[in-house]
């Protein structure tokens, strides 16, 4: 098959590993793949790398810019991708179009290729927008901001309409999409999980000591690490309250590594409080970050309690690869906490109660969770390997072709 894969990721090195790259490279093992991605503030170019055709499309910046500029640039992406496909891939007949959210503004490009080539279209739903923005106060249903919501909600429904199938990250995701979009045939919604190339990223006791020494992390403490985005979805003020509640827990050390719009809140708190069992660090290169994660003990996930949509953060896979049991501190609507608890490799705390967080930290400190580590890695292999999502999508495509 000839496959078109559209993403707003920036893929300058296809040797890297990510949720999107790993599944795309799995398809490239058996099919011809064209990747269409963004090339912020650089000219559009078509190249071939690792046997994959890569069309990097000139777009404006979508990160580290103001909300208005980000909104305008996001709106432009749809036509920019569509025009790039017309101009550079006019002679390629695609059998399958794969695309992810964010963004939801791919509908026009998806529709164009579907009608031009009769391609099967498959949405890998990683983000439910604009409702997630409404949940945390970045958008509203009424008023002036409501106009923006209505526009993006229309685009969301249009994307669903032109998708032959919608692959969701978890059962809660599937239920939410079906419940809140009654026009969608439930039969076209299925679970297609996040994936990662399976690598044992845990480290030896000797390496753990070396890595912790390098970054001035205590060797004799249980290290609770959070790595990733530090923005509105994580509710950083609540994270700070949790850290403050644990300032006197002598056997625990909290490591926060990342970047985002609210990173400065954590940095300021760390400097002003002088909390001795806390270290806040800027985002690291992926290789260094992966090694550091492997030298920790517990991985943490934070999600704002106001979320009504069931987020399923991809950073879970990094923790699992490093064999770190997971403490999920989230809203009650996501099922990521349910996954780690029922999978036997973690704990869940609702993200509106600092006392519960403190109590859970103290409980973890006295637990023997060594068996969790191997159980967790087995769960990763069985549920989140790229072949899992690949087989799901291939079976769906074959089913659609049989029906037609």
CATH class of the largest domain: Alpha Beta
Domain module count: 2
> Structural class, judged by helices and strands?
alpha/beta
The N- and C-terminal alpha carbons lie at a distance of 17 Å
pLDDT average, as an integer?
91
The CATH architecture of the largest domain can be named as 3-Layer(aba) Sandwich
Helical content class = 40-55%
Q: Please identify the oligomeric state.
A: single chain
Name of the CATH superfamily of the largest domain = Glycogen Phosphorylase B
Which strand order spans the largest sheet, edge to edge or round the barrel?
3-4-2-1-5-6-7-8
Give the strand tally. Answer: 14
Number of separate helices: 15
Catalogue the unreliable spans.
none
Q: Please give the radius of gyration in angstroms.
A: 22 Å
Main β-sheet description = 8 strands, mixed
- CATH topology descriptor of the largest domain: Rossmann fold
Secondary-structure element order, N to C: EHEEEHEHEHHEHEHEHEHEHEHEHEHHH
Approximate shape: globular
Strand content: 15-25%
């Amino acid at each position: 098959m000839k496959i078109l894969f559209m993403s707003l990721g920036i893929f300058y090195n296809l040797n890297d590993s990510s949720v999107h790259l790993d599944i795309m490279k799995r398809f490239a093992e058996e099919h011809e793949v064209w990747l269409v991605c963004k090339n912020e503030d650089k000219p559009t170019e078509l190249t071939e790398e690792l046997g994959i055709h890569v069309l990097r499309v000139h777009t404006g910046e979508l990160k580290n810019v103001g909300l208005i500029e980000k909104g305008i640039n996001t709106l432009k992406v749809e036509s920019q991708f569509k025009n790039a496909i017309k101009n550079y891939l006019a002679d390629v007949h695609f059998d399958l179009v794969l695309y992810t959210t964010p963004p939801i503004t791919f509908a026009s490009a998806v529709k164009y290729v579907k009608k031009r080539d009769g391609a099967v279209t498959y949405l890998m739903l990683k983000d439910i927008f604009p409702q997630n923005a409404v949940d945390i106060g970045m958008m509203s249903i009424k008023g002036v901001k409501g106009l923006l919501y209505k526009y993006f909600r229309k685009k969301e429904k249009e994307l669903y309409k032109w998708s032959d199938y919608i692959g969701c990250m978890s059962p809660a995701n599937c239920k939410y999409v079906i419940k809140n979009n009654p026009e969608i045939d439930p039969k076209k919604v299925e679970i297609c999980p996040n994936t990662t190339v399976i690598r044992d990223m845990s480290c030896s006791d000797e390496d753990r000591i070396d890595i912790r020494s390098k970054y001035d992390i205590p060797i004799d403490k249980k290290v609770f690490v959070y790595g990733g985005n530090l923005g509105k979805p994580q509710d950083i003020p609540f994270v700070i309250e949790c850290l403050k509640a644990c300032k006197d827990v002598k056997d625990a050390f909290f490591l926060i590594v990342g970047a985002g719009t609210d990173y400065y809140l954590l940095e300021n708190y760390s400097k002003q409080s002088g909390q001795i069992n806390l270290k806040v660090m800027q985002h690291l290169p992926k290789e260094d970050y992966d090694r550091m994660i492997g030298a920790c003990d517990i991985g943490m996930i934070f999600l704002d309690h106001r979320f009504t949509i069931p987020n399923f953060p991809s950073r879970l896979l990094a923790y699992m690869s490093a064999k770190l049991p997971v403490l999920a501190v989230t809203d009650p609507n996501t099922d990521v906490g349910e996954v780690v608890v029922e999978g036997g490799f973690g704990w869940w705390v609702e993200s509106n109660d600092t006392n519960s967080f403190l109590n859970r930290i103290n409980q973890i400190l006295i637990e023997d969770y060594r068996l969790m580590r191997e159980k967790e890695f087995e769960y990763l292999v069985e549920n989140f390997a790229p072949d899992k999502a690949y087989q799901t999508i291939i079976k769906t495509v074959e089913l659609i072709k049989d029906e037609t």
